[in-house]
Design a protein that fits this description.
six-stranded mixed sheet; phosphatase activity; four-stranded mixed sheet; alpha/beta; Calcineurin-like_PHP; Purple Acid Phosphatase, chain A, domain 2; bis(5'-nucleosyl)-tetraphosphatase (symmetrical) activity; Ap4A_hydrolase; 9 helices
Length: about 220
């Protein structure tokens, strides 16, 4: 997949929001998210929830999770599962998607499939990188990795790696990686883990909600600097 700079990157102005939260891979676990937001006293009038992507597949409430894209208090980067769904519906070649949790789509009635098609089509416009410069905390959110040693807004990087790569987390787990320069905090999902993993300035927050784990939602305003 290719894209220009404006398609890949999106800036969020933190001054426009009260509290800002980042969420790990959702994968259809809509009720778990609603319960979490209630416990956090999330204010839909003033707060913002940023997703690392993979809203859909494997879980029970995929259409409800896609409907979050309509909410003014919600934004997301595109995950590889959104990409698989988009590619499957665009090309008619749905084998990869169905093998990776996409069978929920064929169980929908005609009206549900039509709505899902429309929502999945909108995911093609989602950014692959969200940038939130909070001063002492400069936050970068991508689905799988930021495939460069230095972050720069608008830098041309491998878009497939942003959604699919596990190279950096594998190196981190082997003790062979380094900080990513150019921002203070990087948040990734994609790789299901039993708990949050923190390496240097990188946080891996897919804690396996769809596999019986907890859904991670973190308040960015409270991160250590």
């Amino acid at each position: 997949m290719t894209g220009n700079k404006t398609e890949i990157y999106q800036r969020i102005d933190p001054a426009a929001w009260g509290r800002i939260f980042v969420m790990g891979d959702l994968h259809g676990c809509y009720q778990q998210l609603m319960d979490k937001l209630t416990r956090l006293r999330f204010d839909r009038q003033t707060d913002l929830l940023v997703s690392v992507g993979d809203l859909i597949d494997r879980g029970a409430d995929n259409l409800e999770c896609l409907r979050l894209l309509h909410e003014p208090w919600f934004c997301a980067v595109r995950g590889n599962h959104e990409q698989m769904a988009y590619d499957a519906l665009r090309t008619g070649d749905d084998g990869l998607w169905l093998a990776n949790g996409g069978k929920w789509f064929i169980r929908l009635d005609e009206q549900g499939q039509q709505e899902a098609r429309q929502l999945i089509a909108t995911t093609a416009a989602l950014p692959l990188v969200i940038d939130i410069d909070m001063g002492k905390r400069h936050i970068v959110v991508a689905h799988a990795d930021y495939p460069a040693d230095r972050y720069e807004f608008g830098n041309q990087v491998d878009t497939d790696a942003l959604m699919w790569s596990r190279r950096r987390i594998n190196l981190n787990q082997q003790g062979r990686s380094n900080p990513i320069l150019g921002a203070t905090h990087f948040f990734f999902g994609h790789t299901p883990l039993d708990r949050i993993r923190h390496y240097y300035n990188q946080y891996y927050i897919d804690t396996g909600a769809v596999y019986g784990g907890q859904l991670t939602v973190l308040e960015l305003n409270n991160l250590p600097v």
